[in-house]
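$ fold --in a.seq
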Amino acid sequence: MKQVILLALVVAACSDSGTGPPDTVTGLRAVEIVAGLESPVHLTAPAGDARLFIIEQPGVIRIVSGGALLAAPFLDLTSRVSYGGERGLFSMAFDPGYATTGHFWVNYTDTNGNTRIERYRVSADPNVADPASALTVLEVAQPYANHNGGQIAFGPDGMLYIGMGDGGSGGDPDDHGQTLSTLLGAILRIDVRTAPYVVPPDNPYAGSTTARREIWGYGLRNPWRFSFDAPGGTLYIADVGQNQLEEINAVPAGEAPVNYGWNVMEGTHCYGATSCDQSGLTLPVHEYGHSEGCSITGGHVYRGASLTGLQGHYFYSDFCTGFLRSFRLSGGSATDHEEWDVGTLGQVLSFGEDSAGELYVLSRNGRVYQLQPDS
């Protein structure tokens, strides 16, 4: 398990000159808020709820309430989940009207190794879900054990978005990334207000007889983490690379369909060829090579209140090197790049966001850290 201590510049986040107003954050620290978890891979919260919901990859959802990790799990799905490597329980998404409906959705690989999206409902106890309320929404066969994607999230439009990897192996041998008749290698968009779901009529292939109607965007290798920047509606997708490049895509959420390029492209480079046809492809706004890491861990655009001056900056990391970096999107280009010295984070599995927009880093070392001003 490789862990590194970052050597980075700590400078003003919103100024090219490295100076800023006195109240602007000039340094960050990663403050441990919980430890002893097993592969924490996702953190989220319902709107207006001070609790933190943390997913452990083996199949358990835990709650942090009042700063303490509750002993009893919110939901235990270990008997339904295939765990190991790139399999497990990956994420959850609360209904935008959770306070009224009590509904939430989960994404996991089942005991057959296939992707399963299920809906559950909270019980009379707000800290315990009802396991008997399970409703299967979508099941997608996985040909290999890796590249399962794993993120689900509600967009600003109220639709549920699902990140699907290309099905695994290496190099996308079945060309799923560029094949519209499969749900693999794509971002899906469905309307779950009618159970189990319906295809929104404004999906780009809603009227197609050959393409899967659930597809919103395609050409992805393994979009392990994606997120929406609600104020601007931009969809950020961190797509894990193959041999050379890790990439971040950022496209307005209402723009579809988008072909992100895999496996014609890896980042901004042709994959497996010296030249390729890039017409119709949307290239990433940022990429980095494998001399700097090996597997991108996407995060969120910061919209909280405690990191003054960093609102609008997108944070991300890498599973292998554990750096903490950020940039700001301006005019469609990534600017104001920073690398933050917060000490050793270990192998970063994911980022999380609470109901107030504050950011958290989840590590394979079983710890969850909150990003706070270094002051």
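$ fold --in b.seq
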Amino acid sequence: MAPPPANALANYHLTYVNDFNQTHLPRGWYPFTGVAGGDPTDQFSAHHLIVAQGLLRLKTYRDPSNSNAWTTAGLCQCGRPFTYGAVFVRSRQIGSAVNSAELLWPNDNSWPPEIDFNEDLFRTKFTTATIHWTGNQTNFHVLKIDVSRWHTYGVVWTPLFILFTVDGRPWHEFAVPTSIPHQPMNVDFEQRVNCPSPKYCPRQPSALLIDWLVEYKHN
């Protein structure tokens, strides 16, 4: 339930922990604003990011200040890029028809690569993990899980393999060293809608709740 201690991961040491007990975005975190990259139907707003009561909230709802359009939230830990390490995030999704994602993104924005360690693809009963590398090649896997409940999602990124975990247990490993990213990346959280698609456009507000985040580096 709480962030794990510094010695929780063998042969790793704790480099960052945040349980969002502030009333503003912590130092090193930056909100997304404007039209979402790669998807002109999405609009990010910094006003949809709320830090309060020990939670970081990414909120999606019809925003009167944006012509009553569905507006989402996203942010990056762009002030703390790293190469290789482990990241664990305690989170849950409220509402549906919104794609919530927790991922590692290249610090210089030179996509690919990309490592998505928790992306629900507009669903509430499963999450996915995806690795993107050169030529938009992908390794994609699905985990059946209720994302509306609290879970701890994680990724262990090394030069030789990438390991995805949930609630402290591994659920998928990718061990193709030639396809693993080897450049500085940062942690991103975001929500996206797919409007005006009637299949995915939300019918009610939703939110991605982040309780805490921890990061480790291999010794």
